[in-house]
Amino acid sequence: MIEILASQVVSGLATGCVYALVALGFVLIFKATDVVNFAQGEFVMASGFISYTLLIWYGLPYWLVFLLTILLSGVMGVVLERVVVRPIMSAPIFSIVIATIGASTVMRSAAGIVYGYDVLPLPTLFSKDPIHLGILTFTVMDVGVIGSSIAIMLALYLFFKWTMTGMAMRATAQSQTAAQLMGVSVKQIFSLTWAISAGIGGIAGVLIAPIIYLDPNLGIIGIKAFAGAILGGFGSIPGAIIGGMLLGILENLSGYFFNAGIKQVSTYILLILVLIIRPSGLFGAVTMKKV
Amino acid sequence: MKKGEPFKVLLLVGTGVSLLALPNFVDNYVIYIGARLFVYILVALGLNLLTGYAGQVSLGHAAFFAIGAYTAAVLAESLHWPFALCVIVAAIFTAIVGYLLGLPCLRLSGLYLAMATLGFTLIVQEMLLQLSMITHGSEGMSVPTASVLGFDFDSDYRKYYLLLGVTVVMLILARNLVRGRTGRALLAIRENERAAEAMGVNLAQYKTIAFAISALYTGLAGALSAFLVGFLDPQEFSFFLSIQFITIIILGGLASLLGSVLGAGFLIILPEFLAGLDVWQALVYGVIMVLTILFMPFGLSGAIRRYAYRWFGIGAEPIIPRRLGH
Question: Cβ contact (<8 Å) for A261 and B107?
Fold first, then answer.
């Protein structure tokens, strides 16, 4: 019994790590530009399909596919930013969000046209063989996903802390005006932020597609990741990560105790309860506004 | 009369006459689309009250729509209540649910509110499937024909006029609400809650009332829609439907009754023109959506107001609404 629970926690953590990565993408863009990118889930989906195309249709080696997918995802992010978001940056935030939703619709239907709506399997580097470690039973895949996610998060942390560009991004997130006065090209930072977010989404796509299989509606993961980011406190990077991981674990656990349908909504019920107690999420900053 | 007033009156009368005469000149399918349009206008009115005027982002309106629809259907099918009573009770019940949802949402704003209401939609959709004893779950539920005092609304023609009448009445009520004290209170809340409180606006009261009225309109729309379509499928009442509703009021124009009507029209009628494109339909639809927002960030009504002022001097330069939830 405890073994099953433990393995559920581990596989939930794996899914949770992917949610965390996607949530990270949301929060990065939000911190820098105040925009919620509802096409984030579609970035994940698109990268899944891109890696599928490169791997299956062109037969490229796995490591090359991984790199190219991240690169192309980043390009996709920049394209979306330049074409859809930048022209309406001065519009009400709601309009920009609708624009990203429109973009996500376009991406989803494009994927449906090119690849059809049947579920496609994506071969993976990590095998699904089980490993036994004391009371825990999990797969190599789980380890791979968790490990890769943590590696990426660590890389990003180091990037933000120790590089000039990372510092420039943090400065822009704090205050665009001040950053500009210090010589930061805010426009370039915006594009870079979108590129990184889309790239993270790309990695998430490559990691999750072998687990839940590819189809154009994969973008729904964006909603779960969004919920995770809110749970942790939107606007807080550690919050997004913890929220995403927590969501994954809780989702799996409730799947064990309740039926599949309840599993889907258990996370949202929990989310609403958390929000009632802490309206800004677990680690969200409680903003005080001066009138 | 103010400048442009005769023009507005003429336009209104013209639209009214056209809508009244329409079903006599077009085929059944167009009439059905017209009826669906009225349903969506009702939803848009409700959502605009909450999100446009009061500034409370709601992704939960698919749930209110579902609650209205299923309540009316269950009352009609299981209890065999008369049509009018089913619809009214369904609308009031949805309003109560809206009020109850508004209570925990009092402390939430912006993205958190959006997420909470989104969660509500997903939970309600799942409940529709789980409570299959009453709702018939995933196999769907059929709705008996609407009838009032023996007069059956069994054709699209009759349903059209029924919905037209209800929509006009609700539109007038909304107009009065918006132009009165409540409307001003809601706008004050949207702009700055602290300041509104300082001016004597009871935040909790007005926010929950906004939720309730918004839910009332949407529940009413849902109930009527149930009788219009005749069949309920839980899959329809999804997160995507909530997004559709939000898209309607954004594209039409926030805090604008005209915007609610135009937005609903855009969302309902556009797909009909795209119907011949098969797989490309969704893609073209998405592109049009993006382009519309790019060129009209304040919605159709915002664009109309701006150009009515700039070209004809009617009205005034529209006030740009502040960013919501920040």
Answer: no
> Which residues in chain A have Cβ-Cβ distances shorter than 8 Å to B195?
291
Q: How far is A273 from chain B (nearest CA, A)?
A: 9
Whose tokens are 């109930």? That residue is B223
d(CA A4, CA A165): 45
The reported pTM is 0.87
The answer to whether the CB of A26 falls within 8 A of the CB of A219 is no
Q: Is A79 on the interface with B (CB under 8 A)?
A: no
Domains for chain B: give ranges and CATH numbers.
Answer: 5-16+30-312 (1.10.3470)
Mean pLDDT of all residues in B200-209: 92
pLDDT of residue B1: 58
CA-based angle B35:B39:B42, to the nearest 5?
140
Find the CB nearest A94 among B112, B239, B324: B324
Report chain A residues whose CB lies below 8 A from the CB of B118. Answer: 223, 227, 268
Q: Are B297 and A95 an interchain contact pair (Cβ–Cβ within 8 Å)?
A: yes
Question: Does the distance separating the beta carbons of A101 and B247 come in below 8 Å?
Answer: yes
- The minimal CB distance from B115 to the residues A92, A110, A227 is found for A227
pLDDT by residue, tens only, chain A of 291 residues: 777 788 888 888 988 999 999 999 999 998 888 888 999 999 999 998 988 888 888 888 888 888 899 999 999 999 999 988 888 777 777 788 888 888 888 898 888 888 888 888 777 766 667 777 766 777 778 888 888 899 998 998 899 889 988 888 888 888 888 888 988 888 899 999 999 999 999 999 888 888 777 888 888 888 889 988 988 888 788 888 999 999 999 888 888 888 777 887 888 888 888 888 888 878 877 666 665
d(CA B50, CA B52): 6
pLDDT tens, B274-301?
777 777 777 888 888 888 888 888 888 8
Rounded Cα gap, residues A93 and A36, in angstroms: 9
CA distance B323 to A89: 12
**B294, A87: Cβ pair inside 8 Å?**
yes
B2 pLDDT band (50/70/90 cuts)?
Answer: low
Measured CA distances, B288 to A49, B241, B270, B281, B285 (Å):
24, 18, 9, 11, 5
DSSP code of residue B48: I
A-B CB pairs within 8 A amount to 137
**Are B301 and B259 in contact, with CB atoms under 8 Å apart?**
yes
Greater model confidence, B150 or B129: B129
Domain boundaries, chain A: 2-216
Contact between A105 and B194 using a beta-carbon 8 Å cutoff: no
Are residues A112 and B279, on separate chains, in Cβ contact within 8 Å? yes
Mutant choice from A35, A84, A90, A268 vs B, greatest count of B C-beta within 10 A: A268
Question: Could you tell me the two tokens for B286?
Answer: 């998405």
- CA A26 – CA A194 distance, rounded (Å): 10
C-alpha span between A285 and A110 (Å, rounded): 38
